[in-house]
Amino acid sequence: MGSISVRIDNIEVSSLDRVGISVVMTTYNGSLYLRPQIDSIISQLNTEDELVISDDRSSDKTLEILKEYASDQVRIIQTPGNLGPIRNFEYALAQARGSVIVLSDQDDVWLEGRLTRVRDHFLRNTMPYGLLVLDSDIVDGDLKPTLGSLFELLSVGPGLIKNVFRNTYVGCHMSFRRQLLDVAMPFPRAIPMHDVWLGLVSESLGPVTFEPGATMLFRRSGENYTQSRYSTIQRLTWRIGLMTSLVQLRLSARFRERSDHATTGKAT
Question: What is the pTM of this model?
Answer without folding.
Answer: 0.87
